[in-house]
Automatic annotation (TrEMBL):
<dbReference type="Pfam" id="PF02836">
    <property type="entry name" value="Glyco_hydro_2_C"/>
</dbReference>
<dbReference type="InterPro" id="IPR006104">
    <property type="entry name" value="Glyco_hydro_2_N"/>
</dbReference>
<feature type="signal peptide">
    <location>
        <begin position="1"/>
        <end position="19"/>
    </location>
</feature>
<dbReference type="InterPro" id="IPR006103">
    <property type="entry name" value="Glyco_hydro_2_cat"/>
</dbReference>
<dbReference type="InterPro" id="IPR006102">
    <property type="entry name" value="Ig-like_GH2"/>
</dbReference>
<dbReference type="InterPro" id="IPR008979">
    <property type="entry name" value="Galactose-bd-like_sf"/>
</dbReference>
<keyword id="KW-0378">Hydrolase</keyword>
<keyword id="KW-0732">Signal</keyword>
<dbReference type="InterPro" id="IPR017853">
    <property type="entry name" value="GH"/>
</dbReference>
<comment type="similarity">
    <text>Belongs to the glycosyl hydrolase 2 family.</text>
</comment>
<feature type="domain" description="Glycosyl hydrolases family 2 sugar binding">
    <location>
        <begin position="27"/>
        <end position="163"/>
    </location>
</feature>
<dbReference type="GO" id="GO:0016787">
    <property type="term" value="F:hydrolase activity"/>
</dbReference>
<dbReference type="InterPro" id="IPR051913">
    <property type="entry name" value="GH2_Domain-Containing"/>
</dbReference>
<dbReference type="InterPro" id="IPR036156">
    <property type="entry name" value="Beta-gal/glucu_dom_sf"/>
</dbReference>
<feature type="domain" description="Glycoside hydrolase family 2 immunoglobulin-like beta-sandwich">
    <location>
        <begin position="202"/>
        <end position="308"/>
    </location>
</feature>
<dbReference type="Pfam" id="PF02837">
    <property type="entry name" value="Glyco_hydro_2_N"/>
</dbReference>
<protein>
    <submittedName>
        <fullName>Glycoside hydrolase family 2 TIM barrel-domain containing protein</fullName>
    </submittedName>
</protein>
Length: 929
């Protein structure tokens, strides 16, 4: 008998049949697979065959190493720099086969095959007979009714054909994140749960929950399926409890008579007087259990929900009646080890825990819908999710087949994910253009079906006449500009001198609904080459490797870490002002960063302070980021970053309070510090209501006591809380006297060379408007120098702040606001051909070029000593205190004994580096001046 049981167990295991609760056959495990790139499977009889190649499912052909092996080598060319590279790539049909055994206890049951997530299209055969239910979906499960094809107590062969080729025009250049090789990959396979579920002929098919917060009840929509031939009497019982409690609230009961087919029953369940609401501060969940008892048996379905209500009052977004501000970033299905999203809660916990640690409360799922596990974790942690239909198209609404597909996908999203309280916002897609009448009709249709979410027709649009005030059925507007101007800093930070008392209120004139700013940031950070070793999965970082090899060839690899840190510090400075300017604007209800973490596609867009694995690059800490990204943020209005010591610093305090409660009689402490030394301090009391609090207090600091150039830091602290913030300003002596002494100043190279031959110290400051080189900019590369190659693609400066040339010019080793004027009024010099000398202010080149760049350079020529500055140190110095201070600091250094530059071995190259543009334009090809 014992031997017989062992043999039986082995037989069952060979069919990989695992019962879950007695009602499911788990299909996870070993399958066989055959690729079918030429679509010959049906013709060759693959519908009822075992294949020779084994594959483990859930999984993908990439996991199994199937498909075309990567043959690319690292290079700074577009294929390699476009995105991470699949080690094995397959796009086409693939056949999966497995034997299974149906338990005898399933006689008379309805048997449904459920495959949680597949890319595009699936067909199913049982014993060679096709199930006439071809499925297409990118957002939810593929389901097949196998009831008429499976016999109990019998072995069957299940064959599934999956085709991951593009079926509909849903994406510009295949960049929509539901179907792309830029972030998640165009994988073939099955991921997530996969099983056959057995159900009684009368069973619960769907339970939808509709919380009514003000009424303290939840309305239920229960869909019952009756597969018998006649009317069937059933009893519905409903009970609910707060999640975590052992005791249920009272049960309600309803008798129903079900006709054959599907019936929808409406019920209301009173949760009692002491309900607990759901939000980021109190992610309270309830469980509801619905029991259907009929002559066919007892069927139970449970779901969870949260008591929350989203609304808007004019331009203010609200949750549970309180003001809501979305502190969000994008989630673009970036999971570099697998090339697809996690399908379990453990895989999503790192994402949400990290986002929460960095002060966020919101994730936008750009042009895709996450799986069930993501919603479940967001529910538990109190995150507000924006979900989108799988489309990013310029002809949205104009293709009937695509439009039908979107309606089908939307219905599936409502059925499968609609109960989740974290499913808060719904956009029809990313940056859509096309037929807005069709898009608006889609929004109207969804709002009539499901009012649990707030809706918008598109996450921004470039189509003229749209995207500036909101569409007719929009609950909120996602945009980067309106008819009156920008609502994100990318449009102003390079063109306007740095000021810190501006917001976007003028741009919101005429907008009557809440605004969420679209994809703010996109400030590129130099690749972190230490990240290469992390890529142990299906994707190879040829983009990172190519950069590393190029730096090594050019002798720059030792600078890679400094490039990452310095460019990252600049990005962090800009992100801070981006976020604070949005927080200072009444009428803005949130921002969506692009991005807190890296986007390794679309030309390697490394725009994050975290890498693609949601790990910190250590550019700044999460605690530092939370100073300006938190439920409560102290904000400061001041007119500029640069002062002279005859001025008075004036600070106006704002407080953004989207926390759990108002702060009454809040003590606010402020101070101005020179390092650890306090220059001035004070405090005041204020009442901090919920929402935006403008002009909550003010203070002044005369700066006459600052006799030397200083960087000062203004600190704001809300006493008794963890909320604090700080800002840097720079103060320079007003009466600086420029004394050239023995330093010869010239703007002409020829004159500089003559003076050098005479053994002079020479400050060469050519007219930056005339020389060749790279346009000076303050902001770094936008998004990616590969995706957007026609931009002045530098990534901030790198310098040694301890070098004596900066003794009178306080600076960090990276760009900060005091460099704005110098960088805007400059042309960056290309120094690749120079031998010797030393770069004092290096501009970090973008990673697609990795040239040696400089804006301040020194070297010895003959008996002379040369300093070359390619930023403007000549014009309007009385109105440009930064330039004047830099000039003084350079001269002080050049006049000192510390000025002993290294020899420039090929000074003739300076003639090419500093040639005038008009000479370059007139020069014949190959001519060198």
């Amino acid at each position: 008998m014992h031997r017989y049981l062992i043999l039986l167990l082995a037989l069952l295991q060979s069919y990989c049949v695992l019962a879950v609760g007695g009602h499911q056959l788990n299909l996870a495990g070993q399958w066989s697979v055959q690729l079918d790139p030429e679509d010959m499977g049906v013709k060759n009889g693959w519908t009822n065959r075992s294949f020779t190649t084994p594959i483990k499912l859930p999984g993908t052909t990439d996991d199994a190493g199937l498909g075309a092996a990567n043959s690319l080598t690292p290079a700074l060319t577009k294929p390699q720099l476009s995105h991470l590279t699949r080690k094995h790539r397959y796009v086409g049909a693939a056949w999966y086969s497995k034997e299974l055994f149906i338990p005898k206890g399933w006689a008379g049951k309805e048997m449904i095959l459920k495959l949680e997530r597949i890319i595009w299209e699936s067909n199913v055969w049982v014993d060679g007979v096709e199930i006439p239910q071809k499925q297409r979906s990118l957002v939810g499960s593929h389901e097949f009714d196998l009831s008429s094809f499976l016999k109990v107590g019998k072995k069957h062969r299940l064959t599934i054909r999956i085709d991951n080729r593009k079926k509909l025009a849903i994406s510009v250049d295949d960049m929509a994140h539901a179907y792309t090789d830029h972030t998640q990959i165009m994988w073939n396979g099955m991921i997530g749960s996969m099983y056959i579920e057995a159900m009684d002929r009368v069973h619960i098919k769907q339970v939808s929950t509709f919380p009514i917060l003000t009424a303290k009840r939840v309305d239920l929509r229960v869909v019952l399926s009756n597969k018998t031939q006649g009317n069937t009497g059933s009893t519905l019982r409903v009970r609910a409890k707060f999640k975590g409690d052992s005791k249920y609230l009272p049960t309600i009961e309803k008798e129903v008579l079900l006709a054959p087919g599907d019936s929808t029953i409406q019920l209301s369940y009173d949760l009692g007087a002491k309900i607990r609401s759901w939000s980021e501060f109190s992610p309270n969940l309830y469980d509801v259990e619905v029991v259907c008892q009929s002559g066919e048996g007892v069927n139970v379905m449970s779901t969870s929900f949260g008591m929350r209500e989203l609304s808007r009052e004019g331009t203010v977004m609200k949750i549970n009646g309180l003001p809501l501000f979305l502190r969000g970033t994008l989630e673009c299905s970036i999971f570099p080890l697998t090339g697809h999203p996690p399908m379990d809660k453990a895989g999503w916990k790192k994402v949400f825990l990290t986002a929460k640690e960095w002060g966020l409360n919101h994730l936008r799922f750009h042009s895709w819908c996450p799986p069930e596990a993501a919603f479940a974790v967001a529910d538990e942690m109190g995150f507000y999710l924006q979900v989108e239909l799988p489309i990013w198209e310029n002809n949205a609404g104009k293709d009937d087949a695509v439009l039908r597909f979107l309606y089908e996908e939307a219905d599936k999203m409502i059925r499968q994910y609609g109960n989740h309280p974290s499913f808060c916002f719904w956009s029809m897609g990313n940056e859509l253009s096309g037929d807005f009448d069709a898009l608006n009709a889609l929004v109207k249709n969804l709002k009539e079906k499901d009012r649990r979410h707030l809706y918008t027709a598109t996450s921004f649009t470039f189509q003229q006449g749209h995207g500036i005030v909101g569409e007719p059925f929009d609950d909120f507007l996602i945009t980067q500009w309106t008819a009156k101007g920008w609502v994100r800093g990318q449009g102003v930070f390079n063109s306007e001198p740095p000021v810190f008392n501006k917001n976007y209120s003028a741009s919101l004139d005429g907008v009557s609904i809440p605004v969420v700013t679209h994809e703010i940031g996109q400030y590129a950070v130099y690749p972190n080459l230490a990240e290469i070793k992390k890529y142990t999965g299906v994707l190879k970082p040829l983009n990172f490797i190519a950069v590393a090899e190029d730096l090594k060839r050019k002798g720059l690899l030792h600078k890679a870490k400094a490039y990452t840190m310095s460019s990252g510090k600049l990005a962090a400075i800009l992100y801070k002002e981006e976020l604070e300017r949005a927080l200072k604007t009444p009428g803005i209800s949130g921002y969506q960063l692009l991005d807190l973490h890296d986007f390794p596609g679309q030309g390697t867009a490394l725009v994050g302070l975290l890498d693609a694995f949601w790990d910190s690059k250590n550019i700044l800490s999460a605690a530092e980021f939370r100073q300006f990204c938190a439920p409560v943020v102290p904000l400061l209005q001041f007119s500029k970053a640069i002062y002279t010591n005859d001025e008075v610093f004036e600070g106006i305090l704002d407080i953004s309070n989207y926390g759990v409660a108002a702060l009454s009689d809040q003590l606010v402490e402020w101070s101005m510090k020179d390092g650890t030394k306090t220059v001035a301090k004070g405090h005041f009391q204020t009442v901090v209501g919920q929402g935006y609090n403008g002009n909550a207090g003010r203070f002044e600091v005369p700066l006459q006591a600052i006799q030397q150039a200083k960087k000062l830091t203004v600190h704001i602290n809300l006493k008794g809380t963890s909320y604090e913030n700080h800002w840097n300003i720079w103060v320079y002596p007003k009466e600086n006297q420029i004394d050239f002494a023995d330093v010869s100043y010239t703007r002409e190279l020829d004159e500089a060379l003559r003076l050098l031959q005479a053994g002079k110290k020479v400050l060469l400051n050519p007219d930056w408007k005339k020389i060749t080189g790279i346009e000076g900019k303050f902001v770094p590369v936008f998004w990616s120098p590969v995706h957007f190659p026609k931009q002045a693609g530098t990534m901030g400066l790198l310098c040694d702040p301890k070098h004596p040339v900066f003794a009178d010019f306080p600076t960090e080793g990276h760009t900060d606001w005091q460099w704005w004027d110098l960088q805007i009024k400059s042309t960056t010099m290309l120094m690749d051909q120079i031998k010797g000398g030393e770069t004092l202010v290096e501009m970090i080149d973008n990673f697609a070029n990795n040239r040696k760049l400089a804006s301040l350079f020194e070297g010895a020529v003959g008996n002379g000593k040369l300093m070359v500055a390619s930023f403007d140190l000549a014009t309007d110095l009385d109105q440009r205190p930064v330039a004047k201070q830099m000039l003084q600091s350079i001269l002080t250094y050049m006049k000192s004994s510390k000025f002993g530059p290294k020899v420039i071995e090929n000074p003739e190259v300076l003639q090419k580096i500093l040639q005038y543009k008009e000479l370059q334009e007139k020069a014949a090809p190959g001519a060198i001046y």
